[in-house]
Inverse folding.
Protein backbone atom coordinates (compact mmCIF):
# COMPACT_ATOMS: atom_id res chain seq x y z
CA UNK A 1 0.00 0.00 0.00
CA UNK A 2 1.21 3.49 -0.91
CA UNK A 3 2.05 5.87 1.96
CA UNK A 4 2.09 9.64 1.54
CA UNK A 5 2.26 12.61 3.89
CA UNK A 6 -0.55 14.50 2.17
CA UNK A 7 -3.36 13.53 -0.21
CA UNK A 8 -5.08 16.35 -2.08
CA UNK A 9 -8.53 15.54 -3.40
CA UNK A 10 -9.36 17.49 -6.57
CA UNK A 11 -7.28 18.59 -9.54
CA UNK A 12 -8.89 21.97 -10.13
CA UNK A 13 -6.97 25.22 -9.87
CA UNK A 14 -7.18 25.12 -6.06
CA UNK A 15 -5.89 21.53 -5.71
CA UNK A 16 -3.12 22.18 -8.25
CA UNK A 17 -2.03 25.41 -6.51
CA UNK A 18 -1.89 23.57 -3.19
CA UNK A 19 0.09 20.76 -4.86
CA UNK A 20 2.61 23.24 -6.27
CA UNK A 21 2.97 24.98 -2.93
CA UNK A 22 3.55 21.69 -1.09
CA UNK A 23 6.04 20.56 -3.74
CA UNK A 24 8.48 23.13 -2.28
CA UNK A 25 8.97 20.87 0.76
CA UNK A 26 10.52 17.50 1.53
CA UNK A 27 7.23 15.64 1.85
CA UNK A 28 5.40 13.00 -0.19
CA UNK A 29 2.26 14.40 -1.81
CA UNK A 30 -0.33 12.79 -4.07
CA UNK A 31 -3.25 14.49 -5.84
CA UNK A 32 -6.27 12.39 -6.84
CA UNK A 33 -8.65 13.60 -9.52
CA UNK A 34 -11.75 11.73 -10.65
CA UNK A 35 -11.58 12.94 -14.27
CA UNK A 36 -8.96 11.88 -16.82
CA UNK A 37 -7.61 15.45 -17.13
CA UNK A 38 -6.85 18.21 -14.65
CA UNK A 39 -9.02 21.32 -14.53
CA UNK A 40 -12.20 19.78 -15.90
CA UNK A 41 -14.55 21.21 -13.26
CA UNK A 42 -15.22 24.87 -12.52
CA UNK A 43 -11.60 25.71 -13.25
CA UNK A 44 -12.10 25.36 -16.99
CA UNK A 45 -15.43 27.23 -17.17
CA UNK A 46 -15.17 30.72 -15.75
CA UNK A 47 -14.39 34.26 -16.91
CA UNK A 48 -10.62 33.90 -16.53
CA UNK A 49 -10.23 37.23 -14.75
CA UNK A 50 -7.52 38.11 -12.29
CA UNK A 51 -9.58 40.55 -10.27
CA UNK A 52 -8.03 43.84 -9.20
CA UNK A 53 -9.71 43.84 -5.78
CA UNK A 54 -12.29 46.55 -6.50
CA UNK A 55 -15.57 45.72 -4.79
CA UNK A 56 -14.15 43.21 -2.32
CA UNK A 57 -14.30 43.30 1.47
CA UNK A 58 -10.91 43.05 3.15
CA UNK A 59 -12.46 41.48 6.26
CA UNK A 60 -13.60 38.42 4.26
CA UNK A 61 -11.18 35.58 3.44
CA UNK A 62 -11.93 35.86 -0.26
CA UNK A 63 -11.43 39.63 -0.26
CA UNK A 64 -8.13 39.48 1.61
CA UNK A 65 -6.73 36.67 -0.55
CA UNK A 66 -7.83 38.46 -3.74
CA UNK A 67 -6.00 41.63 -2.69
CA UNK A 68 -2.87 39.75 -1.67
CA UNK A 69 -2.79 37.41 -4.69
CA UNK A 70 -3.34 39.88 -7.54
CA UNK A 71 0.20 41.36 -7.42
CA UNK A 72 1.74 37.85 -7.53
CA UNK A 73 0.54 37.09 -11.06
CA UNK A 74 3.31 38.79 -13.07
CA UNK A 75 6.04 36.67 -11.50
CA UNK A 76 3.95 33.50 -11.27
CA UNK A 77 2.79 33.52 -14.90
CA UNK A 78 6.30 34.28 -16.07
CA UNK A 79 7.64 31.32 -14.03
CA UNK A 80 4.92 29.05 -15.39
CA UNK A 81 5.38 30.39 -18.91
CA UNK A 82 1.71 31.10 -19.57
CA UNK A 83 0.13 34.16 -21.14
CA UNK A 84 -1.26 36.84 -18.82
CA UNK A 85 -2.30 40.40 -19.55
CA UNK A 86 -3.15 43.25 -17.21
CA UNK A 87 -5.69 44.68 -19.63
CA UNK A 88 -7.32 46.71 -16.84
CA UNK A 89 -10.93 46.70 -15.70
CA UNK A 90 -13.69 49.29 -15.79
CA UNK A 91 -16.73 49.16 -13.50
CA UNK A 92 -19.25 51.27 -15.36
CA UNK A 93 -21.94 53.54 -13.92
CA UNK A 94 -25.15 53.62 -15.95
CA UNK A 95 -26.90 56.30 -13.88
CA UNK A 96 -26.39 58.75 -11.01
CA UNK A 97 -27.21 56.14 -8.40
CA UNK A 98 -24.58 53.74 -9.81
CA UNK A 99 -22.07 56.59 -9.79
CA UNK A 100 -22.73 57.32 -6.15
CA UNK A 101 -22.30 53.66 -5.14
CA UNK A 102 -19.20 53.22 -7.29
CA UNK A 103 -17.52 56.33 -5.91
CA UNK A 104 -17.88 54.74 -2.50
CA UNK A 105 -16.37 51.47 -3.89
CA UNK A 106 -13.50 53.51 -5.32
CA UNK A 107 -12.75 54.96 -1.91
CA UNK A 108 -12.85 51.46 -0.40
CA UNK A 109 -10.54 50.10 -3.13
CA UNK A 110 -8.04 52.89 -2.38
CA UNK A 111 -8.15 52.08 1.34
CA UNK A 112 -7.59 48.41 0.43
CA UNK A 113 -4.45 49.36 -1.47
CA UNK A 114 -5.62 48.53 -5.02
CA UNK A 115 -2.85 50.11 -7.10
CA UNK A 116 -3.59 52.86 -9.63
CA UNK A 117 -7.34 52.76 -9.13
CA UNK A 118 -9.12 55.97 -10.19
CA UNK A 119 -12.35 57.41 -11.55
CA UNK A 120 -12.63 58.03 -15.31
CA UNK A 121 -15.32 60.40 -16.52
CA UNK A 122 -17.61 59.79 -19.49
CA UNK A 123 -15.38 61.48 -22.11
CA UNK A 124 -12.26 59.59 -21.13
CA UNK A 125 -14.22 56.36 -20.90
CA UNK A 126 -15.58 56.77 -24.44
CA UNK A 127 -12.12 57.62 -25.66
CA UNK A 128 -10.67 54.46 -24.08
CA UNK A 129 -13.55 52.23 -25.16
CA UNK A 130 -15.39 53.70 -28.16
CA UNK A 131 -17.83 50.75 -28.31
CA UNK A 132 -19.15 51.37 -24.80
CA UNK A 133 -22.71 52.60 -24.15
CA UNK A 134 -22.46 56.41 -24.48
CA UNK A 135 -25.24 56.69 -21.92
CA UNK A 136 -22.77 56.42 -19.03
CA UNK A 137 -21.78 58.34 -15.92
CA UNK A 138 -18.12 57.26 -15.83
CA UNK A 139 -16.36 54.23 -14.35
CA UNK A 140 -13.83 52.97 -11.84
CA UNK A 141 -10.63 52.14 -13.70
CA UNK A 142 -8.35 49.52 -12.16
CA UNK A 143 -5.16 48.98 -14.20
CA UNK A 144 -4.23 45.83 -12.26
CA UNK A 145 -7.24 43.80 -13.45
CA UNK A 146 -6.04 41.00 -15.73
CA UNK A 147 -6.98 38.09 -17.97
CA UNK A 148 -5.58 34.58 -18.10
CA UNK A 149 -6.53 31.21 -19.60
CA UNK A 150 -7.93 29.39 -16.53
CA UNK A 151 -7.32 25.91 -17.92
CA UNK A 152 -3.72 26.64 -18.96
CA UNK A 153 -3.10 28.15 -15.51
CA UNK A 154 -4.46 25.04 -13.76
CA UNK A 155 -2.50 22.67 -15.98
CA UNK A 156 0.72 24.70 -15.58
CA UNK A 157 0.41 24.62 -11.78
CA UNK A 158 -0.18 20.85 -11.96
CA UNK A 159 2.70 20.21 -14.36
CA UNK A 160 5.09 22.27 -12.25
CA UNK A 161 4.00 20.43 -9.10
CA UNK A 162 4.59 17.12 -10.89
CA UNK A 163 8.00 18.30 -12.04
CA UNK A 164 8.77 18.91 -8.36
CA UNK A 165 7.73 15.46 -7.24
CA UNK A 166 3.95 15.47 -6.61
CA UNK A 167 2.28 12.25 -7.79
CA UNK A 168 -0.88 12.70 -9.86
CA UNK A 169 -3.49 9.96 -9.92
CA UNK A 170 -6.09 10.77 -12.59
CA UNK A 171 -9.38 8.96 -13.28
CA UNK A 172 -9.33 8.10 -9.61
CA UNK A 173 -12.32 9.09 -7.51
CA UNK A 174 -11.82 9.58 -3.79
CA UNK A 175 -14.56 7.50 -2.18
CA UNK A 176 -14.12 7.82 1.56
CA UNK A 177 -11.74 9.15 4.17
CA UNK A 178 -10.07 6.56 6.34
CA UNK A 179 -10.26 7.64 9.95
CA UNK A 180 -8.60 5.99 12.94
CA UNK A 181 -9.19 7.31 16.47
CA UNK A 182 -10.60 10.58 15.20
CA UNK A 183 -7.75 11.34 12.85
CA UNK A 184 -7.13 10.90 9.15
CA UNK A 185 -5.31 7.70 8.21
CA UNK A 186 -5.77 7.88 4.45
CA UNK A 187 -8.22 7.71 1.62
CA UNK A 188 -10.16 4.99 -0.15
CA UNK A 189 -10.18 5.59 -3.87
CA UNK A 190 -11.38 3.81 -7.02
CA UNK A 191 -7.80 2.60 -7.51
CA UNK A 192 -7.20 1.39 -3.95
CA UNK A 193 -6.29 2.72 -0.55
CA UNK A 194 -3.79 5.54 -0.10
CA UNK A 195 -2.32 5.86 3.39
CA UNK A 196 -1.62 9.42 4.51
CA UNK A 197 -1.52 11.49 7.67
CA UNK A 198 -3.12 14.56 6.12
CA UNK A 199 -5.88 15.07 3.55
CA UNK A 200 -6.85 18.31 1.83
CA UNK A 201 -10.37 18.44 0.47
CA UNK A 202 -10.30 20.63 -2.65
CA UNK A 203 -13.04 18.77 -4.50
CA UNK A 204 -14.89 21.88 -5.67
CA UNK A 205 -18.61 21.50 -6.04
CA UNK A 206 -18.44 17.86 -4.87
CA UNK A 207 -16.45 18.61 -1.71
CA UNK A 208 -19.44 18.01 0.58
CA UNK A 209 -19.80 14.44 -0.71
CA UNK A 210 -16.54 13.26 0.82
CA UNK A 211 -17.78 11.65 4.05
CA UNK A 212 -20.36 14.40 4.21
CA UNK A 213 -21.67 14.04 7.72
CA UNK A 214 -18.57 13.58 9.84
CA UNK A 215 -15.95 15.70 8.20
CA UNK A 216 -17.44 18.59 6.38
CA UNK A 217 -18.56 20.54 9.41
CA UNK A 218 -22.13 20.52 8.12
CA UNK A 219 -21.09 22.34 4.98
CA UNK A 220 -23.50 21.97 2.07
CA UNK A 221 -22.39 23.12 -1.33
CA UNK A 222 -24.92 24.49 -3.79
CA UNK A 223 -24.32 25.15 -7.46
CA UNK A 224 -24.84 28.59 -8.93
CA UNK A 225 -24.59 28.47 -12.70
CA UNK A 226 -23.15 31.13 -14.98
CA UNK A 227 -23.64 31.02 -18.75
CA UNK A 228 -21.33 32.51 -21.38
CA UNK A 229 -21.09 33.36 -25.07
CA UNK A 230 -17.78 33.45 -26.95
CA UNK A 231 -17.42 35.32 -30.24
CA UNK A 232 -15.31 34.68 -33.30
CA UNK A 233 -12.00 36.53 -33.27
CA UNK A 234 -13.06 38.46 -36.38
CA UNK A 235 -16.20 39.79 -34.66
CA UNK A 236 -16.21 43.54 -35.38
CA UNK A 237 -17.08 44.75 -31.86
CA UNK A 238 -13.75 45.27 -30.09
CA UNK A 239 -12.96 46.22 -26.52
CA UNK A 240 -9.64 46.28 -24.64
CA UNK A 241 -10.63 46.36 -20.98
CA UNK A 242 -12.84 44.07 -18.94
CA UNK A 243 -16.15 45.88 -18.50
CA UNK A 244 -18.23 45.31 -15.37
CA UNK A 245 -21.59 46.79 -14.42
CA UNK A 246 -22.28 47.79 -10.81
CA UNK A 247 -22.16 44.47 -8.92
CA UNK A 248 -25.28 42.77 -7.56
CA UNK A 249 -25.73 41.26 -4.08
CA UNK A 250 -24.54 37.83 -5.26
CA UNK A 251 -22.35 38.40 -8.29
CA UNK A 252 -20.14 40.81 -10.16
CA UNK A 253 -22.79 41.08 -12.86
CA UNK A 254 -22.68 40.30 -16.58
CA UNK A 255 -19.27 41.21 -17.92
CA UNK A 256 -17.91 42.01 -21.38
CA UNK A 257 -14.25 41.06 -21.76
CA UNK A 258 -11.59 40.12 -24.25
CA UNK A 259 -10.15 36.68 -23.52
CA UNK A 260 -6.41 36.18 -23.32
CA UNK A 261 -6.64 34.58 -26.78
CA UNK A 262 -8.34 37.61 -28.35
CA UNK A 263 -11.99 36.54 -28.51
CA UNK A 264 -14.81 38.66 -27.13
CA UNK A 265 -16.62 36.89 -24.28
CA UNK A 266 -19.79 37.88 -22.43
CA UNK A 267 -21.35 36.47 -19.25
CA UNK A 268 -21.95 35.08 -16.70
CA UNK A 269 -25.46 35.30 -15.32
CA UNK A 270 -26.10 33.79 -11.87
CA UNK A 271 -28.80 31.15 -11.42
CA UNK A 272 -29.28 28.72 -8.56
CA UNK A 273 -29.56 25.21 -10.04
CA UNK A 274 -30.49 21.82 -8.63
CA UNK A 275 -27.82 19.10 -8.56
CA UNK A 276 -24.17 19.42 -9.42
CA UNK A 277 -24.15 18.61 -13.11
CA UNK A 278 -26.53 21.21 -14.55
CA UNK A 279 -24.03 22.48 -17.09
CA UNK A 280 -26.43 23.08 -19.95
CA UNK A 281 -26.94 26.51 -21.52
CA UNK A 282 -30.54 27.69 -21.84
CA UNK A 283 -32.43 30.07 -24.08
CA UNK A 284 -33.41 32.26 -21.12
CA UNK A 285 -29.84 32.27 -19.76
CA UNK A 286 -28.35 33.27 -23.11
CA UNK A 287 -30.94 36.02 -23.53
CA UNK A 288 -30.14 37.35 -20.06
CA UNK A 289 -26.42 37.37 -20.87
CA UNK A 290 -26.98 39.17 -24.20
CA UNK A 291 -29.23 41.73 -22.54
CA UNK A 292 -26.69 42.41 -19.78
CA UNK A 293 -23.81 42.72 -22.26
CA UNK A 294 -25.77 45.04 -24.57
CA UNK A 295 -26.32 47.38 -21.66
CA UNK A 296 -22.54 47.85 -21.49
CA UNK A 297 -21.80 47.59 -25.23
CA UNK A 298 -24.92 48.16 -27.35
CA UNK A 299 -23.30 46.92 -30.59
CA UNK A 300 -23.09 43.34 -29.29
CA UNK A 301 -25.58 41.03 -31.00
CA UNK A 302 -26.10 37.34 -31.56
CA UNK A 303 -24.04 37.06 -34.74
CA UNK A 304 -20.48 35.79 -34.59
CA UNK A 305 -21.06 33.51 -31.59
CA UNK A 306 -18.89 30.41 -31.86
CA UNK A 307 -19.41 28.84 -28.46
CA UNK A 308 -21.78 28.79 -25.49
CA UNK A 309 -20.85 27.21 -22.19
CA UNK A 310 -21.62 27.38 -18.52
CA UNK A 311 -19.75 26.94 -15.24
CA UNK A 312 -20.92 26.18 -11.71
CA UNK A 313 -19.92 28.26 -8.72
CA UNK A 314 -19.47 26.13 -5.59
CA UNK A 315 -21.39 28.11 -3.00
CA UNK A 316 -20.97 26.97 0.61
CA UNK A 317 -21.28 30.25 2.40
CA UNK A 318 -20.84 33.86 1.40
CA UNK A 319 -17.10 33.34 1.96
CA UNK A 320 -14.45 30.70 1.16
CA UNK A 321 -14.12 27.93 3.74
CA UNK A 322 -10.41 27.31 4.32
CA UNK A 323 -9.70 25.71 7.69
CA UNK A 324 -8.76 22.50 9.47
CA UNK A 325 -11.80 20.29 10.11
CA UNK A 326 -12.71 20.37 13.78
CA UNK A 327 -13.99 16.83 14.19
CA UNK A 328 -11.38 15.00 12.12
CA UNK A 329 -7.74 15.71 12.88
CA UNK A 330 -5.46 15.90 9.86
CA UNK A 331 -8.14 17.09 7.43
CA UNK A 332 -8.00 20.56 5.88
CA UNK A 333 -10.94 22.00 3.94
CA UNK A 334 -10.42 24.30 0.96
CA UNK A 335 -14.03 24.41 -0.17
CA UNK A 336 -16.74 26.77 -1.32
CA UNK A 337 -14.12 28.52 -3.43
CA UNK A 338 -16.36 30.59 -5.64
CA UNK A 339 -15.21 33.79 -7.36
CA UNK A 340 -12.52 35.17 -7.01
CA UNK A 341 -11.09 31.68 -6.49
CA UNK A 342 -8.96 31.71 -9.62
CA UNK A 343 -7.36 34.98 -8.56
CA UNK A 344 -6.87 33.86 -4.98
CA UNK A 345 -5.25 30.49 -5.74
CA UNK A 346 -1.60 31.42 -5.22
CA UNK A 347 -2.51 32.59 -1.70
CA UNK A 348 -4.86 29.65 -1.06
CA UNK A 349 -1.88 27.35 -1.67
CA UNK A 350 0.18 29.24 0.90
CA UNK A 351 -2.61 29.38 3.49
CA UNK A 352 -3.28 25.63 3.21
CA UNK A 353 0.46 24.96 3.63
CA UNK A 354 0.45 27.06 6.81
CA UNK A 355 -2.67 25.33 8.16
CA UNK A 356 -1.14 21.89 7.56
CA UNK A 357 1.93 23.01 9.44
CA UNK A 358 -0.20 24.30 12.31
CA UNK A 359 -1.89 20.90 12.65
CA UNK A 360 1.37 18.99 12.76
CA UNK A 361 2.81 18.53 9.26
CA UNK A 362 6.58 19.10 9.34
CA UNK A 363 7.66 21.25 6.39
CA UNK A 364 11.30 21.57 5.49
CA UNK A 365 12.16 23.37 2.25
CA UNK A 366 13.78 21.49 -0.65
CA UNK A 367 16.93 23.03 -2.03
CA UNK A 368 16.12 21.86 -5.55
CA UNK A 369 12.55 23.18 -5.93
CA UNK A 370 12.21 24.30 -9.55
CA UNK A 371 9.64 27.11 -9.90
CA UNK A 372 10.07 27.47 -13.66
CA UNK A 373 7.97 25.48 -16.12
CA UNK A 374 9.39 25.25 -19.62
CA UNK A 375 7.25 26.82 -22.31
CA UNK A 376 5.86 24.69 -25.11
CA UNK A 377 6.43 25.57 -28.76
CA UNK A 378 3.80 27.97 -30.14
CA UNK A 379 4.45 28.42 -33.86
CA UNK A 380 1.83 31.20 -34.10
CA UNK A 381 3.99 33.37 -31.86
CA UNK A 382 7.15 32.92 -33.97
CA UNK A 383 8.35 35.07 -36.85
CA UNK A 384 8.75 33.39 -40.25
CA UNK A 385 12.50 32.90 -39.94
CA UNK A 386 12.25 31.12 -36.58
CA UNK A 387 9.39 29.02 -37.85
CA UNK A 388 11.32 28.04 -40.99
CA UNK A 389 14.30 26.95 -38.90
CA UNK A 390 12.04 24.93 -36.65
CA UNK A 391 10.31 23.21 -39.57
CA UNK A 392 13.72 22.37 -41.04
CA UNK A 393 14.48 20.42 -37.85
CA UNK A 394 11.02 18.96 -37.31
CA UNK A 395 8.54 18.72 -40.19
CA UNK A 396 5.61 18.23 -37.79
CA UNK A 397 5.71 21.95 -36.99
CA UNK A 398 5.09 22.72 -40.66
CA UNK A 399 1.90 20.70 -40.99
CA UNK A 400 -1.22 22.68 -40.08
CA UNK A 401 -3.95 20.57 -38.52
CA UNK A 402 -6.33 23.26 -37.20
CA UNK A 403 -6.81 25.79 -39.99
CA UNK A 404 -8.86 28.28 -37.95
CA UNK A 405 -6.15 28.78 -35.30
CA UNK A 406 -3.12 27.67 -37.36
CA UNK A 407 -2.12 24.87 -34.97
CA UNK A 408 0.41 22.33 -36.22
CA UNK A 409 0.78 18.60 -35.87
CA UNK A 410 3.94 19.22 -33.82
CA UNK A 411 2.09 21.31 -31.23
CA UNK A 412 -0.69 18.73 -30.91
CA UNK A 413 1.87 15.92 -30.62
CA UNK A 414 3.62 17.86 -27.83
CA UNK A 415 0.30 18.44 -26.01
CA UNK A 416 -0.38 14.71 -26.01
CA UNK A 417 3.14 13.62 -25.07
CA UNK A 418 3.90 16.29 -22.44
CA UNK A 419 3.61 15.42 -18.71
CA UNK A 420 -0.07 15.16 -17.72
CA UNK A 421 -0.73 15.24 -21.46
CA UNK A 422 -4.01 15.46 -23.37
CA UNK A 423 -6.12 12.30 -23.65
CA UNK A 424 -9.33 13.82 -25.05
CA UNK A 425 -10.29 16.17 -27.87
CA UNK A 426 -11.14 18.90 -25.35
CA UNK A 427 -7.79 18.25 -23.68
CA UNK A 428 -6.00 18.98 -26.97
CA UNK A 429 -8.19 22.00 -27.55
CA UNK A 430 -7.53 23.55 -24.16
CA UNK A 431 -3.79 23.04 -24.44
CA UNK A 432 -3.26 24.14 -28.03
CA UNK A 433 -6.42 25.99 -29.17
CA UNK A 434 -6.87 23.47 -32.00
CA UNK A 435 -10.66 23.14 -32.49
CA UNK A 436 -11.43 26.36 -30.66
CA UNK A 437 -11.78 28.57 -33.73
CA UNK A 438 -14.68 29.37 -36.03
CA UNK A 439 -15.32 25.82 -37.27
CA UNK A 440 -15.25 24.38 -33.74
CA UNK A 441 -13.48 21.19 -34.93
CA UNK A 442 -15.62 20.68 -38.07
CA UNK A 443 -12.41 20.30 -40.11
CA UNK A 444 -9.76 19.16 -37.65
CA UNK A 445 -11.92 16.90 -35.44
CA UNK A 446 -11.27 13.65 -37.39
CA UNK A 447 -7.54 14.42 -37.55
CA UNK A 448 -7.38 15.01 -33.80
CA UNK A 449 -8.96 11.59 -33.25
CA UNK A 450 -6.28 10.14 -35.52
CA UNK A 451 -3.49 11.94 -33.58
CA UNK A 452 -4.84 10.62 -30.26
CA UNK A 453 -4.51 7.15 -31.75
CA UNK A 454 -1.02 7.81 -33.10
CA UNK A 455 0.51 9.43 -30.00
CA UNK A 456 -1.60 8.20 -27.07
CA UNK A 457 -2.61 4.80 -28.43
CA UNK A 458 -6.31 5.61 -27.95
CA UNK A 459 -8.42 3.69 -30.46
CA UNK A 460 -10.71 6.02 -32.49
CA UNK A 461 -13.74 4.13 -31.18
CA UNK A 462 -12.63 4.93 -27.63
CA UNK A 463 -11.69 8.58 -28.25
CA UNK A 464 -13.86 10.97 -26.26
CA UNK A 465 -14.63 14.63 -26.35
CA UNK A 466 -14.15 15.05 -22.60
CA UNK A 467 -13.94 11.59 -21.01
CA UNK A 468 -16.77 9.56 -19.51
CA UNK A 469 -19.63 8.85 -21.89
CA UNK A 470 -18.63 11.43 -24.49
CA UNK A 471 -17.36 8.97 -27.13
CA UNK A 472 -17.34 10.54 -30.57
CA UNK A 473 -17.48 7.51 -32.88
CA UNK A 474 -19.99 4.89 -31.80
CA UNK A 475 -19.53 2.09 -34.39
CA UNK A 476 -17.62 1.22 -37.52
CA UNK A 477 -20.03 1.96 -40.36
CA UNK A 478 -19.57 -1.61 -41.67
CA UNK A 479 -20.82 -2.94 -38.34
CA UNK A 480 -23.84 -0.68 -38.60
CA UNK A 481 -24.64 -2.02 -42.05
CA UNK A 482 -24.30 -5.58 -40.81
CA UNK A 483 -26.56 -4.81 -37.88
CA UNK A 484 -29.14 -3.45 -40.31
CA UNK A 485 -28.95 -6.73 -42.25
CA UNK A 486 -27.31 -5.18 -45.35
CA UNK A 487 -25.24 -7.28 -47.74
CA UNK A 488 -21.68 -5.97 -47.53
CA UNK A 489 -20.03 -8.50 -49.81
CA UNK A 490 -19.49 -5.93 -52.58
CA UNK A 491 -18.12 -3.16 -50.36
C1 LIG B 1 -19.29 31.33 -13.77
C2 LIG B 1 -18.02 31.49 -13.01
C3 LIG B 1 -17.15 32.56 -13.25
C4 LIG B 1 -16.00 32.72 -12.50
N1 LIG B 1 -15.12 33.70 -12.85
C5 LIG B 1 -13.98 33.87 -12.12
C6 LIG B 1 -13.05 34.86 -12.48
O1 LIG B 1 -13.17 35.51 -13.51
N2 LIG B 1 -11.98 35.05 -11.67
C7 LIG B 1 -11.80 34.34 -10.53
O2 LIG B 1 -10.86 34.63 -9.81
N3 LIG B 1 -12.63 33.33 -10.21
C8 LIG B 1 -13.71 33.07 -10.99
N4 LIG B 1 -14.55 32.05 -10.69
C9 LIG B 1 -14.22 31.17 -9.58
C10 LIG B 1 -13.21 30.10 -9.98
O3 LIG B 1 -13.51 29.56 -11.23
C11 LIG B 1 -13.26 29.01 -8.91
O4 LIG B 1 -13.05 29.60 -7.66
C12 LIG B 1 -12.21 27.93 -9.09
O5 LIG B 1 -12.19 27.45 -10.41
C13 LIG B 1 -12.51 26.80 -8.12
O6 LIG B 1 -11.54 25.82 -8.28
P1 LIG B 1 -11.60 24.45 -7.49
O7 LIG B 1 -10.32 23.78 -7.73
O8 LIG B 1 -12.05 24.70 -6.09
O9 LIG B 1 -12.83 23.66 -8.14
P2 LIG B 1 -12.85 22.74 -9.44
O10 LIG B 1 -12.18 23.36 -10.59
O11 LIG B 1 -14.28 22.35 -9.65
O12 LIG B 1 -11.98 21.49 -9.03
C14 LIG B 1 -12.44 20.46 -8.19
C15 LIG B 1 -11.93 19.16 -8.76
O13 LIG B 1 -12.21 18.11 -7.86
C16 LIG B 1 -12.53 16.95 -8.61
N5 LIG B 1 -13.26 16.05 -7.73
C17 LIG B 1 -14.50 16.23 -7.21
N6 LIG B 1 -14.84 15.20 -6.43
C18 LIG B 1 -13.80 14.33 -6.46
C19 LIG B 1 -13.55 13.07 -5.85
N7 LIG B 1 -14.45 12.49 -5.06
N8 LIG B 1 -12.38 12.46 -6.12
C20 LIG B 1 -11.45 13.03 -6.92
N9 LIG B 1 -11.64 14.22 -7.53
C21 LIG B 1 -12.80 14.86 -7.30
C22 LIG B 1 -13.34 17.52 -9.77
O14 LIG B 1 -13.39 16.63 -10.87
C23 LIG B 1 -12.60 18.81 -10.07
O15 LIG B 1 -11.60 18.64 -11.06
C24 LIG B 1 -15.70 31.82 -11.46
C25 LIG B 1 -16.55 30.73 -11.24
C26 LIG B 1 -17.66 30.55 -12.03
C27 LIG B 1 -18.49 29.34 -11.86
Amino acid sequence: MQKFDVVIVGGGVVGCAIARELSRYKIKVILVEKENELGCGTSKANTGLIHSGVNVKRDSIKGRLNLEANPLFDKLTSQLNIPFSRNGSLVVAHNRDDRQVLLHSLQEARENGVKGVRWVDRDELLQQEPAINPDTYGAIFAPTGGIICPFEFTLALGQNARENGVVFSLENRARKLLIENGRVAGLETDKGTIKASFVVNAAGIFADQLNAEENNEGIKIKARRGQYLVYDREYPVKIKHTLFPRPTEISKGIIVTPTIHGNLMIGPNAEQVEGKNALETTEEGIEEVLKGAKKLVPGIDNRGIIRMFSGLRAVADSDFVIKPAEKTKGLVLAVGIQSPGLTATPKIGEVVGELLQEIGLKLSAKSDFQPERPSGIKTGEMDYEKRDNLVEKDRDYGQIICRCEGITRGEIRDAILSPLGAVTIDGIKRRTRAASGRCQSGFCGPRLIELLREFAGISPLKATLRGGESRILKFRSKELLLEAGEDIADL
Remarks:
- The chain has a mean pLDDT of 94.
- The first strand starts at residue 2 and ends at 9.
- The longest helix spans residues 341-358.
- Residues 415 and 421 are 6 Å apart (CA to CA).
